[in-house]
Structure formats: C-alpha cells, structure tokens
C-alpha cells in the first residue's frame, strides 16, 4: 500500500516541527511547501538525514511549486506571519488573509481531496477564509486551536494537582483568542471533575481561576519569552494528533475550530467546539451543554470571531 502523503504549506518553525513529527511517527511522506526558495529544500534534506539515525522511512521533499502537493491526503497550513511581542493574533489579519487566498487556490487546484488543517492566525477567521478560497467541503477543513489550548490547560492543571498529564483531560472551546473558553466543569483528573477536586481540597477556586487566565494568554506568554516568533512545538503536536485521527480513522473527540451550521445556536462560522475526526474528516460536531459563565464566554467569543470575519470581508470583496 502506498504511503500517505502529507503536505505542509509553510515550512517555518511549525512546518519544520510538523515534518519531524510526521517522520518520527511514520505517518507518511512529506512535502514541505514554502514561498521561500531554498529553505524548504534545506529543511527536507536535513530531516531526511535524521531518518537513518531515528530509523524512519519517509520521502521528504521541499518545494515552492504547488504541483508537488498533488494527491496529498492531508494538508497542514502554517503559511503566513507569526506574532511579534505586543501583537495580538488579530493584528496578523491583513497579511495572512492574502496568504490564505494563495494557499486556498493552491489546494483547490492540486489537492482538492485532502483533509485540511489550518494553524495560521487569527485562527477562526483564517480557517473560514481558507475554506471559502479553497471551495472544499466544510467537513474537510478544520482549524487547530482547541487541542493546543486544552494541552496548555492540561499542563497547568497537571502541575497544580501534581499528577501525570496523561490523566488530565480538559476542554477549551470558543475562539482561539483572549475570549477562549476553558471549561472547568468538563475538565477532570481520571474522570474526577475539577470542581470536585476543589471540594476535596486539591486546589482552590482562586488557583484554578489563575490557571484559566494563564491558559487564555498562554500563546502570548510564549511570544513574550521567545522575543522572535510564536510557539511551535505544542502547536505542531496538536495538529499531528488531528491528522493522525483522520488518517487512521481513530474517531478521536477533540476540540477544534469547525464550521457550525446551527449547532450551539451558531450558523456559518468557524469556532472551537468538540468534534469527532475520522476517515470522513469532521464526523460529528458534539454539542455539550454550556452553562452560566462558560455559555456567556462562548457567546463573547463567537462575536469576536464574527468581527474578524467582517474585517476579512472588508479586505477582500470575494468573501461573502
Ligand atoms: N505561501 C507559502 N508559505 C508562505 C506564504 C505563502 N503565501 N507566506 C509566508 N509563508 C511562509 C514563510 O516563508 C514562513 O516560512 O510561512 C512560514 C511561516 O513560518 P514562521 O514564520 O516560522 O511561523 P510559524 O511559527 O511556523 O507560525 C506560522 O502559525 O501559530 C500560527 O500565528 C502563527 O500564523 C502563524 C503560523
């Protein structure tokens, strides 16, 4: 059986990390695409030379020609510019919208059957624009944000409770911005909800509130520390979890930016919700009951995404 083909559109920090993970996990052959000429070829060669040491078999190709992504099973899009200190994800809108147009047209022409995972920020607006420009069905185009935001939440919770990250499950829903919604009631240690753990004296409401706040600004904290660019290890791992669920038809239930058609009372936009990813892409959008503050935060988040979509429409009249 032929190997899967994974096209990475954008061969920067996240793109290179994605390629390494695809190789190490033997998920398939890799095409690293970038507008920069030599860089993707250099990264592909460097990565290919790690294969004999690590013991993985994969063809890795760097390119600036969209024809090379032909027949890709999965496309992971990181093309664009990342944040600099002091910038919000939304500040990236103008530049990255133009990039999504070029990428969407490239995917439409050369890999229309791929499962597409968008990482480029501001995420919820960019994945929507990418779907519009590519014309692919909405079940085949998703955004990576919730897995990453939830991983940040899980990491902080595991530290607080002094337990393995493996046993901490957590959900972060809503838009991938300051209005994201870490849902404490649905976050657990081996099935024990966080509110119960507070009652059991494992933590305090104040400490959990601080963790929620740190999760919300988790990307900005890293941007500030790096001083040049944004996070790339955890974003790459998160997108690989989504690609893996698709390629192996695992039907994992993961929080992702998905196109809503009435679910959660929301229509015609992308926002972070729990979905099942399987061989058909988005197999199911899971509607959990959001109450009180979580519901209010989710609504604020949806409105923030709507504002960004309107800003995109003002910049590009082909977007409806
Ligand atoms: N087509 C293809 N690649 C492009 C294009 C384009 N039109 N425009 C820019 N690129 C490439 C750049 O040449 C660069 O190599 O996208 C790559 C982006 O890589 P980095 O600058 O290293 O950014 P990275 O850290 O990988 O983040 C990429 O993900 O998390 C988001 O906010 C982040 O939007 C940013 C994206």
UniProtKB/TrEMBL annotation:
Origin superkingdom: Bacteria
Pfam families on file: Ldh_1_C, Ldh_1_N
Gene Ontology process terms (BP): lactate metabolic process; tricarboxylic acid cycle
Lactate/malate dehydrogenase N-terminal domain: residues covered: 5-143
Gene Ontology molecular function: L-lactate dehydrogenase (NAD+) activity; L-malate dehydrogenase (NAD+) activity
Family membership: Belongs to the LDH/MDH superfamily. MDH type 3 family.
HAMAP family for the chain: Malate_dehydrog_3 (MF_00487)
Protein name: Malate dehydrogenase
